Amino acid sequence: MSIAKNIVLVHGGFVDGSGWRGVYDALRADGYRVSVVQNPTLSLEGDVAVTKRVLDAQDGPTVLVGHSYGGAVISEAGNHENVSALVYVAAFAPDKGESVNTLIADPPPGAPVPPILPPVDGFLFLDRERFAASFAGDLPAADAEFLADSQVPWGLDALGGAVTQPAWRTKPSHYLVATDDRMIPPPAQRAMAERAGATVAETGGSHAVYVSKPAEVAAFIGKAATGTTA
Hints:
By secondary structure, the protein is an alpha/beta fold. It has a single domain (6-226), classed as 3-Layer(aba) Sandwich (Rossmann fold), CATH 3.40.50.1820. The protein is 36% helix and 18% strand. It is built from ten helices and eight strands. It has a six-stranded parallel beta sheet, sandwiched between helices. It has a two-stranded antiparallel sheet with strand order 5-6. Helix 1 (21-29) crosses helix 10. The longest helix is centred in the first third of the chain and has 13 residues, at 44-56. The two termini are 16 Å apart. The mean pLDDT is 95. One of its GO terms (molecular function) is hydrolase activity. Keywords: Hydrolase. InterPro entries: AB_hydrolase_1 (IPR000073), AB_hydrolase_fold (IPR029058), Sec-Metab_Biosynth_Hydrolase (IPR052897). Residues 7-219 form the AB hydrolase-1 domain.
């Protein structure tokens, strides 16, 4: 397996790529070339196209990383020839014909339900008052408030966009489970990781684990880049 020196980071719904800053800095310090995708999150198709444009610019093997809804994006965009491995960070990993919408349709009894407000003009937001507890429980209060107040509208076509060819069926995949996640239940994360045949690690962290534990997330990505699983 060729060692990847390129990393592409894909954010999820309600946020933008700036949340990757800590992971970006750690990976850059380790010598990787890192690119951060800025998805409009209007539609899955559109976000896949944006991600593929960033992948087109890579000069060799690339690890494609997705958080949350970004996992749906990388599951489709990861078929790009430059992608050598996929990394899911507390992310959705849809199979063919699945969308985030189908994956969250039937939450198990007792599982926390994300405080997604009813759509307005085709866009979704999280309840600002409940954002911290659901999305960012391990961040300082001020940081969680900033994320809540800088939410990116999440389009219904992104939520409902179905994956047509899941890249995890043909590319090595890795999955970091956030055990304190109140957006995607940890049992659901484990089930998607197992289905994908992913190399799995777990860490205590909220849905915003990529923000709260950047060094640990970067180290996990680094293992995917070098092909090590220990």
